[in-house]
Prior knowledge:
By secondary structure, the chain is α/β, with parallel strands linked by helices. It is built from five helices and six strands.
Amino acid sequence: MVHDLNQAFIDVVRKSGSNNQDRYLMISPFGASAKANICETMFFKEFKGDHLILSVHSYQLNVDEIYKGAQELAEISNKHNIPVVVDEFGPSLKKSNYENAQMLKAYKMASDHYGIGLMLWDDGFEYHIIDRERNRVYDQKTINILLKE
């Protein structure tokens, strides 16, 4: 059903005119899962249209699993000629600074290596980088890790 909704979304946007024929659209598998077997189910029914981006969430903390997951996403990207974005990941206040730093470095290295886009998740609670009340950066270390070349 999620895949049918994705196709309906694509069709509606494409038919709405203007520059929407060429606009990039982000589509997600069930639960926005980054698991390869779930992402792959999206492509049993080939989506009609191009300018699509596979959008997934990943809260993997194990460094080896982060690299494995990135490799699997890159394989899907290459097989279906679709860019991939992990549009929700981030350090958790429930984890130590060391664990978060290792996780962030792994995501950064894996995304750079495999050409996967990253968008840091900030929900203002468990995952937060910006202090919205004081309008300041809460976690500069995270930003520094991700911006490091």
